[in-house]
Amino acid sequence: MNPRRAYLDTVNATFQQAGFGPASYQYVTGHTQAWFQWTPGQQTVNATAWPNGLFVTWHHTQGWHYSNHTDTDVRHPLPFTLAADPMDVADGVRRLLLGLTRDLPASTDDWTGAAALTSAQVARS
User: Fold this and answer.
1) How many percent of the chain have pLDDT more than 90?
2) Where does the pLDDT of residue 20 fall: very low under 50, low under 70, confident under 90, or very high at 90 and above?
3) Please, how many CA atoms are within 13 Å of residue 64, restricted to the half-sphere of its CB?
4) Going by C-beta distance under 8 Å and a sequence separation of 6 or more, which residues neighbour residue 62?
5) Contact 38, 97 (CB under 8 A)
6) To 5 degrees, how large is the angle CA 36–CA 7–CA 66?
7) pLDDT single digits (tens) 65-99
8) What average pLDDT score do residues 11-20 get?
9) CB 32, CB 25: distance < 8 Å
10) What is d(CA 46, CA 7) in angstroms, rounded to the nearest whole number?
11) Looking at the predicted structure, is the pLDDT value of residue 125 above 50?
12) 0.85 exceeded by the pTM?
């Protein structure tokens, strides 16, 4: 399996285990990026903070970002490493879903498969 796809599948599974699901999840092969989306009405979404939903993205060179679902051109970087540990990503997303956008916890730990992800990145450069 593609290491990037394996990473994103692991992150998605971690979100589901944490009770954030189901998030709408899409992996785009040509761009090596993914979108995770939570829409208004899902019980995990703070409707006051995210009246139009929450959109979290990952890109293989730009890392993690979030935005209001209706304004995806304005993306805010998340304080995670490129291959952040999925538990760290889930903790940050949990806080975002609650509407807490300040002082998000930084991730310094990488996913256990990060070496394969980095190797795939270097091989394609």
Assistant:
1) 27
2) confident
3) 23
4) none
5) yes
6) 30
7) 999 877 667 789 999 998 999 999 999 999 999 99
8) 88
9) no
10) 27
11) no
12) no
18 pLDDT more than 50: yes
Tell me the residue ranges of DSSP E strands in 19-123: 24-28, 33-38, 54-59, 63-68, 76-77
Separation of alpha carbons 63 and 33, rounded Å: 9
Q: Please, which residues have CB within 8 angstroms of residue 55's CB and are 6 or more apart in sequence?
A: 35, 36, 37, 66, 67, 68, 69, 72
C-beta contacts of 51-57 below 8 A and 24+ residues apart: 54/96, 54/97, 56/93, 56/96, 57/33
Q: Do residues 81 and 63 lie in contact, with contact meaning Cβ atoms separated by under 8 Å? A: yes
Q: Quick one: DSSP state of residue 105?
A: P
**Burial class of 18 by CB neighbour count within 10 A (0 to 12, 13 to 18, 19+):** middle
Beta-strand ranges (E) seen in the chain are 24-28, 33-38, 54-59, 63-68, 76-77
Per-residue confidence (pLDDT) for residue 9, from 0 to 100: 86
